[in-house]
Amino acid sequence: MLPVLVVYPRLKRRGQNLFLLAASYFFYGSWDWRFLSLIMASTVVDYLCALRIEAETGPRRRRYLLISLGFNLGLLGVFKYFNFFMESLQGLLGHAGLTLSPMALEIILPVGISFYTFQTLSYTIDVYQRQVKPTRDLADFALYVAFFPQLVAGPIEKARRFLPQVLAPRTQSRDAFFSGCYLIFWGLFKKVFVADNCALIVDQAFRGDADPTGFVYLIGAYAFSWQIYCDFSGYSDIARGVARLLGFDLMLNFNMPYLSPNLADFWRRWHISLSTWFKEYLYIPLGGNRVSKGRLVFNLMTVFVVSGLWHGAATNFIVWGALHGAGLVALTFGGVWIAKVSARVPAAIWTFIAVVFTFHYVALAFAIWQTETSLAWVELVYRVFFEFGFSMGALALLGKLAGFVALPFLIQWLQRRREDPMVVLRWSVPVRALFYVVCLFCMLRFGVFDGAEFIYFQF
Predict the structure, then answer these.
(1) Which of 46, 174, 219, 450 has its CA 20 to 30 A from that of 210?
(2) pLDDT tens digits, one per residue of 85-107
(3) Mapping DSSP to helix (H, G, I), strand (E, B) and coil, where does residue 411 land?
(4) Is 360 a catalytic residue?
């Protein structure tokens, strides 16, 4: 970032884009230069397909859209899902008494492939739907695909929102500079102080005891929920902050999700770029909610099972998606009953109950990411409800977790109360200074600077 910030302001728009493209390829290639070929191939294919979609009429437009879909989803299929589906097929045939010769590809999953394939797919789909005019400058389009701050873990920017920023001259304002620096600082705090310390508690809860109680499992679920939230939203904050320093505005990807009163609101606030992608490009094309009840159940379950599969090529991720789909189905068809019950309870109390219930549902569903099998997760949930096993040691572990999540929870509560994700920047200078000093002290004294990579790099 620092060399880019030195050179970038001294160039004009065309030079800036070419320089940022080179920096983005260097950034991605520093992980493994061989996989640059994938992102370049995806870029060229979708660039050409979009031009042909714009030029053609009738069935030929659909043909080039299918080429784009087939190529990008084919990349995902080969690198991310081939081995999983082959193992699943072998298991199914084995139950039927048939055998299939083992087939597995000895390849690694390219970092960020799920993110940049979805981003470039949004471009060809938007061109096909005539919501975006295709750009004729390959370098500009390549920068839209490979923009380094959000390349490997989002936010997933749609073409109609981000491509105009690539094509237009950028201005760098004082407010954008300071807000960008704040986002980088706050994202770093959430990663090294909160997420990576929560990761240590997660390991202790799920793998530190040979026979954990339900209480310990519950603490592990709490810790992992905050780990993945601060890990992923921390990356998104850093990405948005770096982009602001360069004159770009990336979309808000997390908006106080753990204060949501129901699952529908949670998914409007969690990983917003992905949830809106699935809504626009899968849920609505399936018919959305303007269908029969049976079809609505199918639509919801399909979207969330696919979302689970997007997160990982494993049964646990599919079950996790199905849990959220089932929860939304229950919320959709139980809305009348929920309204009747809530009408008999004071609004503040009902909101509190709803937020606590939603958080626990989300946390226990996330816990399946930490179990080796779905059956192990069922045992975990059983112990939480029927073999709680209160202990002072577990209570001390909960207190340790509370110390790490207290500040981000407070900030999230203040953001929700003001409906302002940048509420910290509205404080007076002395209060902001104290806040920065406290955060810096926490990072330097308790931060984990040799922690794991960002969780969503594996997706």
Answers:
(1) 450
(2) 676 666 666 666 666 666 666 77
(3) helix
(4) no
